[in-house]
Amino acid sequence: MSYKSPKTGAQVYEADGNGSSRQAVCPLCDLGLGESGIITKLSLQMPSAELLENLGFVQGAYVTAERSAPQGDPKIYRLDGRLIAVRRQDALGILVVRGKE
Amino acid sequence: MDRPSISVEVEQAKQEERERLLAPPRIHAVALVGPPNCGKSTLFNRLTNLRQKIANYPGVTVEYRIGKLSKANGISLIDLPGIRGAAAGSEDEQVAWGVLRGELPGLSKPDAILLILDGTNLRAQLPLASAVLALGLRTVVLVNMADTLLARGGSVDIQALQESLGVPVALISATKGTGLEAIERFLTGTSPVEPPSLPPILQGAAQRHSWAKAIAARAKYRVPKESLWTKRLDSFFLHPLFGPLFLLISTVLVFQGVFVVGQFLSNAIDAGLRFAGEAIRPEITNPILQSLVLDGLWKGMGSVLVFLPPILMLFLSMGLMEDSGYLARAAVISDRTMAKIGLNGKSFIPLLAGYGCAVPAIMATRIVGSRRDRLATIFVIPFMTCSARLPVYTLLIAAFIPARPLLGGLVGLRACVLLSLYALGFFAAVTTAKLLNSTILERSKIPFVLELPEYRLPSAKSLAMLLFERARIFLTQVGTVVLGVSFVIWLLTHLPLHAGRMSGLDESFLARAGQWIEPVLRPLGFNWKIGVGLLSSFVAREVMVGTLGTIYGADPVSHSTGLATALQRDLSFPGAMALLAFFALAMQCTSTFATVKRETNSWKWPALQFVYMGGLAYAVAWVINQCLSNWF
Predict the structure, then answer these.
(1) CA distances (Å), B396 to each of B414, B426, B563, B577, in order?
(2) How far is A91 from chain B (nearest CA, A)?
(3) Average pLDDT per block of 10 residues along chain A, 101 residues long
(4) CB–CB of B77/B103 below 8 Å?
(5) DSSP A66
(6) In degrees rounded to 5, what are phi and psi of residue B222?
(7) Any chain B CB within 8 A of the CB of A34?
(8) ipTM score of complex
(9) Cα A42 to chain center, whole Å?
(10) pTM for this model (two decimals)
């Protein structure tokens, strides 16, 4: 029920024990353009976590990867009707389950 | 006479006392609070009817605007920096929360709050309401952009929202000016006063967001459709190919505009001041006073005033970019590149502006946001080759570099040298930014997160306000410092007195200082005359050309020859190259120094910058002179 976070190398544990849904879980930055997902877990350091949570990156929020900068990073996500650009390194700590709301 | 009995009077007094206690206390100071890009500034401008000024919080670099309400007399309105949520992320947000909690020294806690939220994003912005309402201050919630919300098929039940929040709520449009009566009613106390019911204390952003979701559902909030225009414009401005191309072209155009039009206006101001100065000259009969007022102070003031047009032009362009929403896109496009040197996309525009003039560029770092990135940007901006270096570059290059074609006549040798000086400055900036990351300024842990606002038509009124305020601040703050420095320099070039007459330049204190520092400059290949020129160039780089002109003009040997020829006799080729490098790297500009002092609100930063850049300039000039002297 766990995998290594690509950024910190720390073991990240999934809340639900359902192994079949694992493939659908990925860091936010891995969503392809046009793909959506629901945030399941945030594993972020304190200042990042607070800032992103204040913007609405909280468990259960529905996010769509809308566009990306010309060089691919940062990506622009649609969240609660707003467009928010997040760098890959910060989006790595936000885990989403791919799928529609 | 029939007088009311004493008991009646007592009854009356008691009644009045009861009414006084029941009525809400009069409001004196109101704070305008809201997230960034919610229309806060527009509302502020409308409510104060432009009776406002920009002030600095004591001890921090954050600015706030304060104004008098035009409709409710005697009430002052403070425009706080935009806040996103309960946690104080940036310095701006910390200051805003500090004011609301009454923790900021020198500023009393506001009596009431106007909380403005963007109606088109209500669900995302309601969590802020829970944090603000928890302060327990009298609050009215203004749901802004009512027109856009309704036009795009969104809706909200204001009555239901008011009931669930427990405070008055009004649907307004700051741009159209509708719904603002609610603010007046709230401030003058004629709106029905309900006992403020505190919202539940919510711990953490996740709880606040689920609370917001519930409130939005109870208020039957329907999210408006996304803006078609924003979508269309983004697919062009953020296009993998056209996006960066447009950014490049528009930046070039902006700088062309700033420095062609700005230069034209600067020249006009310069000519006007000169003309006025000459017109006054016969009026002042005392020669010492005449020299002090006209050659010292008037010229010093002129040297500041000519900066004004490019500054205002740059602020106009940046204001247009920011208010239209394009600036955020430009930051996203350039972020990847800026990240490589430890900065973020928001630093891109100020850095570029540094190629024109460091003074407006440093003032423009306000848009950067994070204090750490802002300091780093300010620190490296003076390395960008500003237009004041050009007169010195052209003089020295014309005197020491032969006009020889390179690459089959494609470019000239002189152009190549000029280009390499630009490259030297850029390289120094990049290296310094990287150095800052690993030393005094730790790489920021705050992530680069940027909300992309919807595209909007900028308002002429707020742009005009911005320009007016920037001009005022620049003239008062930088003007006083430069005026003081001009006075000191004038004293140094004209004292000591010889039998009641002022000294000529070569026997002045400045010349003595030049001779005194000659041993230090000798390893760089400079003699005392160049030294005096260098000293004077610390007022502003281009002053060097004028000073050298005066020195060589007073010298009988070089009197009849041109400045370039005179320099060739006095300066070796390695020395000239060292001098060019010195100019590329040293922070020789009083206006820049004064601007950094103002923007960072400390002497530490400009002093550190001055020493660092001076040390680097000296070291590089030394290496160049020593190496070239050995080769030639």
Answers:
(1) 10, 20, 10, 8
(2) 9
(3) 49 46 76 92 76 85 92 90 89 89 70
(4) no
(5) E
(6) -110, 125
(7) no
(8) 0.79
(9) 8
(10) 0.76
